[in-house]
Amino acid sequence: MPLPSPTIRIAMWSGPRNISTAMMRAFENRPDAAVSDEPFYAASLAATGADHPMREAVIASQPTDPARVAEDLTGPVPDGRTVWYQKHMTHHMQPDFPLDWSRHMVNCFLIRAPEAVLASYTQKWDAVSLEAIGVPMQAALFEREADRLGHAPPVIDAADVLADPRGVLTALCRACGIPFSEAMLAWPPGRRASDGVWAPAWYDAVEKSTGFGPPRPQPAFESLRDDLKPIAEAARPVYLRLKASALVAASAA
């Protein structure tokens, strides 16, 4: 595997139905940054046989060998940029996928309260599980990185980002060793060449966006379907474990 360049490579680990694509927009709008959209998606589909919208198009659009994906992520930086933001979905990382490449990254974690994740997820999918929303793998990745560093890696909560984008992104940038950029707070609407081929199935809202939206109401546990409540209860300890390390909004000064 090639040695990393001086570029700051940020691996942002998120479950589905979060603000992960808006976060990608924020970084892509920086003049110094390149972004990668869910690079292990095709590899995950090929490994699991999962039936997702646009499955064949996704598989055709990316390498399906996870080792090849890992090699690409530690190889030459797109467009020679000095920041490389990689949007990763935790549920894409299958147990036998390589992880050694992640030591070259600033590994960060984007979390959202399980009630909010489940309420949003079931608007798109009928069936849901703890694994489908990426909770066990996010926990494992967090603990792996905390053990490697000797302290908690950067964590941000989607609700905190929406409540104070400038403050939380400033704190995140500091934790990643890069300066905050005002360009991260607003972006032009529309699709990007860097968006995954699956964008037509999933990115309708973010394509209309020009920045982070207002804070979203937090669904109550009692409002969840009965079959979702055990999943929320199982996910909550992981959420609270990571939430305890969430970055506090900082001044941009």
Automatic annotation (TrEMBL):
Membrane-spanning parts: none
Family as reported in the entry's similarity comment: Belongs to the class-IV pyridoxal-phosphate-dependent aminotransferase family.
InterPro entries for the chain: Class-IV_PLP-Dep_Aminotrnsfr, P-loop_NTPase
Pfam family, one: Sulfotransfer_5
Name of the protein: Sulfotransferase family protein
Keywords annotated in UniProt: Amino-acid biosynthesis, Branched-chain amino acid biosynthesis
PANTHER family: AMINO-ACID AMINOTRANSFERASE (PTHR42743), AMINODEOXYCHORISMATE LYASE (PTHR42743:SF11)
Gene3D superfamilies membership: P-loop containing nucleotide triphosphate hydrolases
UniProt keyword Amino-acid biosynthesis, yes or no: yes
Keyword Transit peptide attached: no
